[in-house]
Write a structure and sequence with these properties.
By secondary structure, the chain is of the alpha/beta class. It contains nine helices and seven strands; from the N terminus they run βαβαββαααααβαβαβ. Strands 1-2-3-4-5-6-7 form a seven-stranded mixed β-sheet. β1, α1 and β2 form a beta-alpha-beta unit. The structure holds adenosine monophosphate and manganese (II) ion (3 copies).
Length: 285
């Protein structure tokens, strides 16, 4: 019987709605055999999630989703099997969170100029002490009637050329891949179809990533269409990258991205879990 892997998910440690504890419980209820928690730029949820997974006899992979600026565009690099005790990784993530805090204030100031008061305070409150992300600003704007839903709010306020967008100085691709791999993890390009890159640009990203020691490609994502999965599968094979799959689950309220409800990897792909690191994930062989 084949196992269900879900290698991209979020908890309240970043911008998810479920605590690490609840997330793992939900994954278990959805028959997920192996879950990776990959919060944005923070590892605070990992120990709670690992403990819960162990008590349920579920496989668990400590992960991260690192925000990266590559050629003036934000891309996300997932790390699987990272060591949360890595000093270098934690120093890097702390720097990204500092930038996040400054950016949140700046988003607040810009929205204020646009006639929307109290956004920084509102988003901070919604983040409840965890990292503050655009998701929290989006929630504030929807709750206060500035937009009708999450899709609408990003389009109108929170993307490039909109009042609440602040361009990022995140990690370089080299830093992100280095922090992950030197902590013992596998680096994976997250949801490649979401960047809407031309084929040439996406290939350039993959080449850079490979040269820096990256090895994985998220062929199957909760946000990829069937055609995108096929295309990304071909790219993974062509560039000899290991294929990963993850829902990018944030909340039970988003019915499209349920945990563990993923298409299977295209047949010719080599999965990330063919690597030796995956033999010790808390499951019988
Ligand atoms: P940040 O890392 O703070 O810039 O926030 C990015 C997060 O916002 C992503 O991880 C998603 O969870 C969320 N996000 C980005 N674009 C959208 C969108 N169009 N609709 C809903 N959520 C989005
Ligand atoms: Mn997110
Ligand atoms: Mn992402
Ligand atoms: Mn994500």
């Amino acid at each position: 019987m084949s196992r269900i892997y879900d290698l991209h998910s979020h908890s309240t440690a970043s911008d998810g709605d479920l605590s690490p504890f609840e997330l793992v419980q939900r994954a278990h209820a959805q028959q997920v055999d192996v879950l990776a928690l990959t919060d944005h730029d923070v590892t605070d949820g990992l120990s709670e999630a690992a403990e819960m997974a162990a008590s349920l006899g579920m496989g668990f992979v400590p992960g991260i989703e690192v925000s990266v600026s590559w050629q003036r565009q934000t891309v996300h690099i997932v790390g699987l099997h990272i060591d949360p005790d890595s000093v270098e990784l934690q120093a890097g993530l702390a720097r990204l969170r500092e930038f996040r805090n400054w950016r949140a204030e700046e988003i607040g100031r810009r929205l204020e100029k646009d006639g929307i008061g109290g956004a920084y305070e509102g988003a901070t409150q919604l983040a409840r002490g965890a990292i503050i992300s655009r998701t929290h600003f989006a929630q504030f704007l929807v709750v206060n009637g500035y937009a009708k839903d999450m899709r609408d709010v990003f389009k109108r306020f929170l993307i490039k050329n909109k009042p609440g967008y602040v361009s990022g100085e995140w990690a370089s691709l080299e830093e992100a891949v280095g922090w992950i791999t030197r902590s013992g993890g596998q680096a994976v390009i997250a949801h490649p179809a979401r960047y809407k890159m031309t084929a040439t640009r996406l290939r350039r990203l993959i080449r850079d990533f490979r040269e820096l020691g990256g090895s994985g490609f998220e062929v199957v994502s909760g946000t990829h269409s069937a055609d995108e999965i096929k295309y990304m599968g071909r790219l993974a094979n062509q560039f000899e990258l290991l294929a990963s799959c993850g829902s990018d689950f944030h909340s039970p309220n988003n019915v499209y991205l349920e945990l563990g409800r993923l298409a299977s990897l295209p047949e010719a792909c080599t999965p990330v879990w063919s690597d030796a690191r995956w033999q010790d994930i808390g499951l019988p062989q």
